[in-house]
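User: Assemble these into one structure.

Assistant: Restating your components, then the assembled model:
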Amino acid sequence: MSEIYIGVDFGATKLNAVAITPTGEVRAKLREPTEATKGLEVVIKNIVSLIEKVISSGTKRRDEIRGIGIGAPGPLNPETGIIIKAPNLPGWRNVTLRDLIREKINLPVFLENDANAAAFGEYWLGAGKNAKVLLCLTLGTGVGGGVIINGKIFSGANFIGAELGHTIIKYDGLRCSCGNFGCLEAYVSATAIVQRTSTAIESGEKTLLTKMVNNRLEDLTAKLVHEAAKKGDRLAKDIMTETGKLLGIGITTLANIFNPDVVIIGGGVSRAGKFLLEPARQEVCKRAMPGIADSLYIVRAKLGEDSGAIGAAGIALFKDRKRL
Amino acid sequence: MSEIYIGVDFGATKLNAVAITPTGEVRAKLREPTEATKGLEVVIKNIVSLIEKVISSGTKRRDEIRGIGIGAPGPLNPETGIIIKAPNLPGWRNVTLRDLIREKINLPVFLENDANAAAFGEYWLGAGKNAKVLLCLTLGTGVGGGVIINGKIFSGANFIGAELGHTIIKYDGLRCSCGNFGCLEAYVSATAIVQRTSTAIESGEKTLLTKMVNNRLEDLTAKLVHEAAKKGDRLAKDIMTETGKLLGIGITTLANIFNPDVVIIGGGVSRAGKFLLEPARQEVCKRAMPGIADSLYIVRAKLGEDSGAIGAAGIALFKDRKRL
């Protein structure tokens, strides 16, 4: 009989689930909308239904399932299984998500912050295997962070740390969504890239992007900026280089503090690959303390959009085996 | 028979040693010059001689001594006991300090970075007892950092992390001694305080300090700035408030990342107490992510100049008991 673990990545718009073996063989993978606007009950029903579906398609017998991991928006408490508050999910305050799911499914359930789950996925099966100190930055609408030290998730004294996106890089700089000024997130998120590009276009810079969005700047995305850069567009390339440098500044602080062996860059923006990572690496080499850059790999996430779900399943596995 | 541990704080100018019991009773305390300019052999002779003296004055019988901890300038490797390079000590490169001392004294010897030893001292017997996540910032000529997570020293994959003083707060800001721009150290070290005060005085600001140093700006120290602030001097108070705010900005980044329960401020500059810590706390409350500031104490170091030596002895104790 196989042993199977289920992982769910619970995002504000999408639910992503996998059924996976302890050796990392994905037996099933499903994705469905979260329907967050329909309220808490519907979301929980959707999560339960997706778990049941991924169990059906990924296993022959239900008793193969050893546990379920859920990566969810935080702040949350993995020990009590309670989501304290989910800013992007209306009505989610002090929700005992772990117990609610466990009641419905009757299997061991583990809850973890989504960014930590993604970091754990990359540690278990992705770009950070065997790392002693792994940092993961997820560049999307915001910038998420995860820290794995000696195989354990590190999130601080009350599980609300590892907010790597809220590393200040310029204290009198841009306003961040968190209310602070100068956070890394305000410079390297998809939102920030779009903002910086729009400003440049509005100030009259020539670029392929104007045509690519038919003059509708509101249709601009970070993905389009990357596409234009690939086509050789000067502005798009400059924006990506600048973003990479700013990312490198944030990584420098993190590297001086954590002396990590690997920093993994995930999320949609990371698809920009070398346009982003090359200038980031150069900046770290220029700025970091002696020795820090020599042993540091800055790499793209390997598991793509599945890192969260795979990591959540990995957490269930490692908890089950008392290795976490 | 008592059990006694010896701790040595090996600084560029002074050697500080304690003999201490497992319950934290200091049996002897001695201080001598390092004589770093006289070269490696003399320094090692001085360390050995100081250890012998503190053993003689702190114990009745030599077999009471269970182990010796040494906090030394880094980068160093605590596992091999080798000082890789000590920037302020001429000739110190790849020195097998642990083994050299062990050969002479014939007792277990443990080597640790000095800033980590100071943090461990505050964790063991100082301002951070029982903390889950403790950060220590030592504000002196430079800014040292130490991180204790669940009772263990955290210094990264290759023991060269925890450089909390090299948290960037303004990427296009002041040049730091490390070569980078905008590090916390360039804003809140004693050196930075003196620099900022001198610049203000040179630009014509009225202050008691001018008289306190008899117009010799080269005699200005951070300690004098603190004294002038205590006397109500406006410029000195402003400088300290600004330094506190800048310190708070650095702590905000660290707090968002580590979600610590305590941040301990040590080193000579920390004597400024509330002049420094009050504005720092306010800045963290304004800037940190939700929940982070609520459970965070920002406090002065309790062990003063002995934190390094006491921490080094504590490391020897905890290693001996397999708790580290």
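The radius of gyration of chain A is 20 Å.
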